[in-house]
Amino acid sequence: MDASKVLSILYNEIHSVVVGMIDSEGHPSSAFVKDDETWHKRNSVYQEFLKQAMAQRPVFLELGVGFNTPGIIRYPFERIAAANPDAMLIRVNQENAAASYTDLNNILSIQQDLKAAVDKIKHS
Length: 124
Description:
By secondary structure, this protein is of the alpha/beta class. Helices cover 43% and strands 11% of the residues. The chain contains four helices and three strands.
């Protein structure tokens, strides 16, 4: 899958979080994302970064991301990794490090406390 397809998937995942929620100024928003002009400018920069990264062999390092807002980081990272076999997703999570996709092969899941995992890496 090419980078533009992956970026489209990511955009739709992030954008779907804000749909249906309106702030006091009439902009779709959530506690974490505000869909306004600033968001679109920053999103363009992020999309360009992802496009360049996807042309290489990106590594997505996910530290302690759980299920509070999985549509922002957790699920999009899995979808990008699933769409790009050259990508690598490294996930450290104390309670649930496993992938949601059973056929996701390019993930390293470390189910451990983040500090303990980092200490183990430092001392090895």
